Amino acid sequence: MMHISPESISLRPAESGDQAFLLELYRDTRAVEMAAWGWDANQQQMFLELQFRARNASYSAYPNTEHSIILNADQPVGRLLISRMEDEMRLVDIALLADARGLGIGAKLIAQLFSQAVTEGKPLRLHVEKSNRALELYRRLGFQIIEDTGTQYFMEWRG
Q1: Which of 16, 25, 95, 98 yields a CA-CA distance of 20 to 30 A from 9?
Q2: Residue 15 three-state SS
Q3: Cβ–Cβ < 8 Å for 55, 127
Q4: First-residue to last-residue Cα distance in the chain
Q5: How many CB atoms lie under 10 A from the CB of residue 41?
Q6: pLDDT digits over 119-159, tens only?
Q7: What is the dihedral of CA 82, 79, 14, 156, to 10 degrees?
Q8: Are 73 and 51 in contact (CB under 8 A)?
Q9: 42-89 pLDDT per residue, tens
């Protein structure tokens, strides 16, 4: 396993050649859930590919998106998707491979977004599933719940 730390993290624009990595990242973020369902590998693969395409289609509805690959040295370890709207910045998606979670990388990247939001005079908003472990990170960083949609929270940070 490679050494991963917030200091070795950088971003680069996502490219069409990143699709295989992004599917693998998506699979990695849903591994625990998939194991609990007891499906065979083929069933899991078909389901995940379908869900991956559906999620990407829903993300394409966001305007002015910046899609970045999170790198540790030169190795992809995650993705960051931001939408810059007239009245807000939206953290559409941040995802890290399992080996890169819990090391302060997400907090570092979100802190950079806080700086940009303050500079632009906009709140930073996001949706998070209530069962997502990142919810505690968002609370710790100062995001406030502004809406409960039933399965998700819509959260906001203001500088």
Answers
A1: 16
A2: coil
A3: no
A4: 37
A5: 8
A6: 999 999 999 999 888 999 999 999 999 999 999 999 999 98
A7: 0
A8: no
A9: 888 888 888 889 888 889 889 999 999 999 988 999 999 999 999 999
